Amino acid sequence: MIQHPVVIQGGMGAGVSDWRLAKAVSLTGQLGVVSSTALDTILVRRLQDGDPGGHMRRGLALFPFPAMAERILEKHYIAGGRPKGTPYRLLPMLARVNSQEATELLVVSNFVEVILAREGHTNPVGINCMEKLQLPLLASLYGAMLAGVGYILMGAGIPLKVPGVLDAFAAGEAASYPLSVTGAKDGDDCLMRFDPQEVFGQPMPKLERPFFLAIISSNTLAATMVRRANGKVDGFVIEGSSAGGHNAPPRGQMVLSETGEVVYGERDLVDLEKIRQIGLPFWLAGSYGTPEKVVEALESGAAGVQVGTVFAFCEESALREDYKSALLKKIRRGEASVFTDPFSSPTGFPFKNVQLEGTGSEPGVYRSRTRLCDIGILREAYRTDSGTIAYRCPSEPEEIYVAKGGRLEETTGRKCLCNSLLADIGLQQIRRDGSEEPGMVTTGVDLPSVLRFMPATHDTYSAADVVNTLMSQLPPEVSATQVKSPCVQTIAEPAGANTP
To answer: Which CATH class is domain 7-321+447-482?
Structure first.
């Protein structure tokens, strides 16, 4: 019988759950998870900052095709880092058909993040992907699998075709994925394709097929995944509306509170009895970050829980220190709050914003930012009048969006999550006037639970502290069968890897 982890660490933001956090959690025997969001941009920005600690260069040196890694290093690495005040160089935006260079960067960046999280132990590591982020999906999945990722977790959409992609890549074969294109007509070519042999110029070996966990919020979607997915679904993460990041829209007509927040009701609750009848393992997410909730989840028949918020504030989290420190102080004073914003995400999904001064959660900060779209991972693909595929984002300048056929009302309140989430981890872009992109932190609503993990004398705690506390009320036999001692691996570092 397969022993899955009790605790899955959530895949958070763009790089908040980076390789350091995932590694720290996996070392405990639970499942550490890296976020796949914008990893190509994150890798090149780390390299442009001089690769402090040499970690990116160490990961690149482990890539099995050295020439490909060397091309990335040669183009993007700046010894000593960018001169102060210099903007990051931007990457070309992705499209249905990408250049060889863009494809290589996606493969390698996902490989590097996963291989570094796996370094020093043999416990599994997962990667979290958003189905809404379709343009980088195929190359990202292949790069993660090339690094030996153990679990693929995917929500923010209906990933019916992902299991078949994993099957094809495991067999060393090409895979395709349908790109959602607004206005597409029968006969339009909307498929994205990834052929490992074409990308690498030689036949590729078979790879280990990771477990696939679909992140869902309804019984209907769980049943649909089992019936219609084109490959094996290994389990579900059932994410409630209190979880951080993107939330599924409420069922039925959207209702807003007096303060303009999305309201969820009884129709949005999942019937766990129907989930149990499906017969696949499932984990519960959304305000499950306490030892009592872990026990409750297991007693309900779940395999465990997925927890994000309490990991977001631990020492190994990549959330930038000024944001982390300010929010921990607000949490301790009982002043921290989260707003479920119906409009801020370009995807149209509700998105949770932590209210923090100086970030995009403040209306004044939002209004003062010049609208532009220069990263573009949340863009919408649409069919032009000439039959080609083009891209637009409701967070770009209103007149540009409307000129592309978008509706003006879709731009109201939209925020640039691409730039905001990168700013959350200290990779904020510098604009021509010298200003920096503001961040916008997202967590679940259960911020008070963080206090369970903070000693009274100081405001830091480790990922291991989180795991130990979450598991502390489980019977000894459960903990003994689930928590494994890491088997240490030695991975050689390239020469000069630790030279700043």
So the answer is: alpha beta
